[in-house]
From TrEMBL:
Cofactor(s) the record lists: thiamine diphosphate
Record keywords, A-Z: Oxidoreductase, Thiamine pyrophosphate
Keyword set includes 4Fe-4S: no
Single Gene Ontology MF annotation: oxidoreductase activity, acting on the aldehyde or oxo group of donors, disulfide as acceptor
Organism, as annotated: Eilatimonas milleporae
Complex and partners: Homodimer. Part of the 2-oxoglutarate dehydrogenase (OGDH) complex composed of E1 (2-oxoglutarate dehydrogenase), E2 (dihydrolipoamide succinyltransferase) and E3 (dihydrolipoamide dehydrogenase); the complex contains multiple copies of the three enzymatic components (E1, E2 and E3).
One Pfam family matching this protein: Transket_pyr
Transketolase-like pyrimidine-binding domain segment(s): 350-527
Keyword Oxidoreductase: yes
Sequence intervals crossing the membrane: none
Gene3D superfamilies found in the cross-reference section: 3.40.50.920, 3.40.50.970
Protein name per Swiss-Prot or TrEMBL: 2-oxoglutarate dehydrogenase E1 component
């Protein structure tokens, strides 16, 4: 080992001081768990203190950090106040996340600790997005992403490393290799002899260092950080530091090599660094004892602060899901938004697809924080249905970015960039592919505001094409997954049916403070319509009454509106007056408009493109029955897609989806009639 004196006395003592503070926090948390004062799953950092302490000494509060659930060393080293960390462990409102995140989801934007994820490997794509924002804004900030050796075998990490190398992002990927992926040894996880060697496959720098030695880490990390700041791209840095106890607090250690474990405990970094400081005469016993005593005093005070702090009030359950707490489908203020419809001074003819393109053009032109990313979105392709055609030529390939086929990296990068205040619009080519990156959507975009106690927001827009009921796409390219998305608190979902709304809703999504999913139906894409000129916003969470009627309420959205409008004509010929509601937004849901209409007509049929079983229609039907049971003249009816994968054969596909004829037949049944 290189002597600690190469760091200089002050830096060597600062690193040791951080290591001691980490160890004191780690020990106190484990004591609290053993005593029953705390109750949660906890992942100790013993043996890895030198990694975080040495890297932390190289970073500024402006530099970003993304880490994983074994986090205590990283967050202490990044500069988060210990008392806020301890308060979060106790679930108190004074904690880093106001008691809503807990030990696996700590965040502190003030110190640059942006995300702690409880999902193995999931932080790497987000770190790429933070680095991308720094690169685009020219801030000089570096992003450090820490993960374990087990995460090195996760697909999200592969996607993130490849994209970071491709774009030469200022990010350092730190694999803290403690030689065990949960309960599996490093040798049992991969045939690779190391992780750093994989860097060559991505075309980036890679380096392996001794994670127990602050000098080794400091020098290697320093080279990586300097490389990132100079614009020379990312580094995969592997810091090897054997774990000193089981995977989690209380876990058994039978899976560990007992002889090696005993040797590693005897040579724990905290002990060896202390001895080296004394041997090299960099500090006296008195000075080191004073550092250790100060850490215990700090942790004592932090624990007292935490225990004396208040728990979140009951009302906090419903805060920080969205920026506006009144937009939830349940709880205070649920029911819809009261907002005026836009009235542009001038309108022009445009198809649905042209409306999407125009919305993106307006957003890019008027807001420098907006940028687009996705597969094949650059010219000459301009997207698979030309939704982005011409935009990369007009605004450049930095703001209209074609990406590898890497949905996790695409959405993660959008999330990371949005955490800095940018407004990324990420395209998922077809809705079905959202399942490939559902972790990024459901566990991160949707939850980061809540898990951070409102300290971070994710103003990201995800555009997705739904290709059902246009023929020839089959089971894996045609699905409508709005019910999946709606089941995840924290996501807003819009599904326009016409060009005017497609533009206005997309612009509303782009400038919304929360993550929004815009579902764009291919069946609508080439339909003629009109749009307003310039920037206008259709309110998210407000339905539109497309036709007044007295006898039955028809509710739908997206391309389902085409079938509903067709059914309404046939019903009129049968003497039935239908009121037609276009939801436009799935979340927030304008329940008030639906209830007002059904309260008037006494009958309702809900139509949606997605599978009927467990679809949005079931939720709406339940809400209508709960609120209007005594006023209904017939049970609420639902008509969605059949419970089958979507067939390739067009005759079978026509049987799968709801049709105008089927809607009319269903309505007639509510009146005790049959089709003529």
């Amino acid at each position: 080992m290189t002597q600690l004196s190469t760091l200089g006395r002050d830096l060597a003592l600062d690193i040791y001081r951080t290591m001691v503070r980490i160890a004191a926090c780690d020990e106190r948390i484990q004591q609290g768990l053993a005593a029953g004062d705390l109750q949660f799953q906890y992942y100790p950092a013993g043996g890895q203190e030198a990694i975080a302490a040495a890297i932390g000494a190289l970073l500024t509060p402006e530099d970003y950090c993304v880490t994983t659930y074994r986090v205590i060393h990283d967050i202490v080293a990044k500069g988060t106040p210990v008392r806020e960390i301890m308060a979060e462990m106790y679930g108190k409102e004074t904690g880093t996340s106001r008691g809503k995140g807990g030990p696996m989801h700590l965040s502190d934007p003030k110190s640059g600790l942006m995300v702690t994820t409880g999902i193995v490997g999931a932080g790497a794509p987000i770190a790429g997005g933070l680095a991308l924002a720094g690169q685009m804004k020219g801030t000089g900030r570096v992003t450090v992403c820490s993960f374990g050796d087990g995460a090195a075998n996760i697909g999200a990490v592969h996607e993130a490393l490849n994209m970071a190398a491709l774009w030469r992002l200022p990010v350092v990927f730190v694999c803290q290799n403690n030689l065990y992926a949960e309960y599996t040894s490093f040798e049992g996880s991969t045939r690779s002899t190391d992780i750093a060697g994989r860097a060559a496959g991505y075309g980036m720098a890679g380096e392996r260092c001794d994670g127990r030695d602050p000098v080794s880490v400091y020098e290697a990390a320093g080279r990586a950080i300097d490389r990132a700041r100079a614009g020379d791209g990312p580094t995969l840095l592997e810091c090897v530091a054997p774990r000193l106890q089981g995977h989690a607090f209380g876990s058994d250690q039978a899976h560990m090599d007992q002889a090696r474990l005993a040797e590693d405990i005897a040579n724990a970094p905290l002990k060896t660094v202390r001895n080296r400081l004394l041997e090299e005469a960099l500090a006296s016993e008195t000075e080191l004892t004073a550092i250790e005593d100060a850490a215990r005093v700090e942790v004592d005070a932090a624990q007292t602060f935490a225990m004396e702090s208040q728990s979140p009030a009951a009302a906090e359950l419903y805060t920080e899901i969205f920026a506006d707490n009144t937009l939830l489908p349940e709880g205070p203020g649920a029911g819809g938004v009261a907002a005026d419809e836009p009235t542009p001074a001038e309108t022009v003819k445009a198809s649905f697809g042209e409306a999407v393109n125009n919305a993106l053009d307006v957003a890019l032109e008027t807001d420098p924080d907006v940028f687009l990313l996705g597969e094949d979105i650059m010219d000459p392709a301009g997207g698979i249905v030309k939704a982005t055609y011409g935009l990369s030529t007009k605004y450049g390939t930095e703001r209209v970015r074609g990406t590898p086929i890497s949905e996790q990296a695409i959405v993660g990068a959008a999330i990371g960039a949005s955490l800095t205040g940018m407004k990324p619009v990420a395209e998922i080519m077809v809705c079905d592919f959202a399942m490939v990156c559902m972790d990024q959507i459901a566990n991160h975009a949707a939850k980061l505001r809540y898990m951070s106690g409102g300290r971070t927001s994710v103003p990201v827009t995800l555009r997705m094409l739904t290709a059902g009921n246009v023929g020839s796409f089959g089971a894996q390219h045609s699905q409508s997954l709005e019910s999946w998305f709606a089941h995840i608190p924290g996501l807003k979902i819009v599904a326009p049916s016409n060009a005017f709304d497609a533009k206005g809703l997309l612009l509303s999504c782009i400038h919304d403070p929360d993550p929004c999913i815009s579902l764009e139906a291919m069946r609508c894409f080439f339909a003629p319509g009109e749009i307003g000129v310039g920037d206008y916003r259709v309110p998210i969470g407000k339905a539109a009454v497309r036709q007044k009627g007295d006898d039955v309420t028809l509710v739908s959205y997206s391309w389902g509106m085409q079938e509903v409008m067709g059914a309404a004509g046939a019903l009129a010929e049968a003497g039935i007056s239908a009121e037609i509601i276009d939801l436009r937004s799935i979340v927030p849901l304008d329940l008030n408009t639906v209830l007002a209409s059904v309260g008037k007509t006494g009958r309702a049929v809900i139509v949606h493109p997605a599978v009927e079983f467990c679809g949005l229609g079931a939720e709406l039907s339940a809400k209508i029955h709960e609120n209007l049971f005594s006023e209904l003249k017939a049970p609420v009816a639902r008509l969605g897609a059949r419970y089958t994968p979507i067939p390739f054969n067009q005759q079978l596909e026509a049987l799968h989806f709801p049709t105008a004829e089927g809607i009319a037949t269903t309505v007639l049944g509510l009146f005790g009639k049959t089709p003529a």
